[in-house]
Amino acid sequence: MNLNSPITIEALKVLDVIDRRGSYAAAAEELDKVPSALSYVVQKLEEQLDVTLFQKQGRRAVLTPAGRYLLEQGRELLNSVERLAEQTQNIARGYESKLRIAIDTIINRPAVYAVLKQFLDEHPLIEIDVREEALNGSWEALIQDQVDLLIGGVEPIPINKGIRTEPIGNLELAYVVAPTHPLAKKKGPFSPKQLEHERRVVTHDSARESVSWSRGLHNSNKHFYVPNSHSKRLAQLSGIGLGFLPRHLIEKDLQEGSLIELELTEKHSTPSTLYIAWKTVNRGKGLKQLRDLFSSELTL
What we know:
Blueprint: H1 9-21, H2 24-31, H3 35-49, E1 54-57, E2 60-63, H4 65-92, E3 98-104, H5 109-122, E4 127-133, H6 136-143, E5 149-153, E6 163-170, E7 173-177, H7 192-195, E8 200-203, E9 223-226, H8 229-237, E10 243-246, H9 247-256, E11 260-261, E12 273-279, H10 285-297
Parallel strand pairs: 3-4, 3-5, 8-9
Antiparallel strand pairs: 1-2, 5-12, 6-12, 7-10, 7-11
């Protein structure tokens, strides 16, 4: 890195104002300097770079192609410097520069993004990094400090891991098949024994190191694995297999008859409570305000 580069923040600001105002005189007025001071900055930069940055067109100072390129790249640098100053001040006030969020695949995502939009309207300087996880992988991401906040975690909640949780709503599941599936034409209720030979569509647990969870009504030696709930819905719509899906995700499918809900003899044991979760050591103001917003505004 060349610390003695002739391209300085001051020089870029001078080029920017001259280009916007169209003349050295107008730029000098905005910067509260004399025109000769601006001319000196530009001439010095031209000499050190061995290029011409401005040319005269009547009374206007117009950038040359080289000057235009330098200013276009320089404006990105100026914006970065401005953001750096603002974020530094933000952090000094106790806010994070970035929040990492894991959203469990089973949750109602449009509702989550509506809350995130509200948060960003209030905190535009905080960067948000969202990732999708499933089942135990959601908790693993939080425990391993890969994320700051988990949205949509399900029981069992890991213990002795320094985690705090708050319930944010209940999840209603439906056991469904496509109308082309043989079971769609049979009358229920269906027992686990009747379903054990059917192909089950299963969402992959995203856990990489922890023990993977497997949830469902029946054991089966026929599985079709998918990465998330939306892929699971598509697989079941196509008639590949059957399984539980969040009711919020398939309400329209059920109304239109694209999916058929099966009546079961046994209630499933999948937890119905959804949680937001975070590490107790994370005490940034941004995280706290985002938690509070999810607790008060999230509608599942």
